[in-house]
Amino acid sequence: MDPQLSLLMANQARVTSGDIILDPFVGSGSLLVAAAQFGGYVLGTDIDYLMLHGRTRPTRIQKKKHREKDESIRTNMEQYGRSSQYIDAVVADAALPMWRADFKLDAIITDPPYGIREAAERIGSAKSYIISEHHLPGHIPSKVEYGLPNIYMDLLSFAARHLRVGGRLVSWVPIVRYYYY
């Protein structure tokens, strides 16, 4: 996410000192850095373990084959002097929220995947199978397509349950311009 756009989103969310901010599609964490600049305590989730740990190939620099060890959310927060505001980033599926019912946020700031640069996926399978107890600890679940209507329905439902009264959801919504001519 472009740094200026990240700051605009944090500003639209009216992030202030002490706010708790979540990005459920955190990726590389640029929205967390911006929210922390406004004083928020930030956390994120993403389904992509490798992305969270800075082990994937950068999407914008196609010739570069790997990330350096200083290319992670944690090190981004350190570089901007915001380590104390970084709560954590957790591997989680936005379609299967893991939060307690009484967990409240001051803002949700996110740029969900559209399936163009990053895959739009959720945990699931077209097959029906049962995983044995023996294999469960090391099981890596398969993923299925997570369409935009489902992404936004889940995001709005999550926001309705977990935003405090007066909290804000700020998100990008993709449009195809030729529909508007």
TrEMBL record:
It catalyses: guanosine(10) in tRNA + S-adenosyl-L-methionine = N(2)-methylguanosine(10) in tRNA + S-adenosyl-L-homocysteine + H(+). InterPro entries: DNA_methylase_N6_adenine_CS, RlmKL-like_Mtase, SAM-dependent_MTases_sf. It comes from the Eukaryota. This is tRNA (guanine(10)-N(2))-methyltransferase TRMT11. Residues 2-121 form the Ribosomal RNA large subunit methyltransferase K/L-like methyltransferase domain. Pfam families: UPF0020. Catalytic subunit of the TRMT11-TRM112 methyltransferase complex, that specifically mediates the S-adenosyl-L-methionine-dependent N(2)-methylation of guanosine nucleotide at position 10 (m2G10) in tRNAs. This is one of the major tRNA (guanine-N(2))-methyltransferases. Keywords: Methyltransferase, Transferase. The lineage of its organism: Eukaryota, Metazoa, Ecdysozoa, Arthropoda, Hexapoda. Part of the heterodimeric TRMT11-TRM112 methyltransferase complex; this complex forms an active tRNA methyltransferase, where TRMT112 acts as an activator of the catalytic subunit TRMT11. CDD domains: AdoMet_MTases.
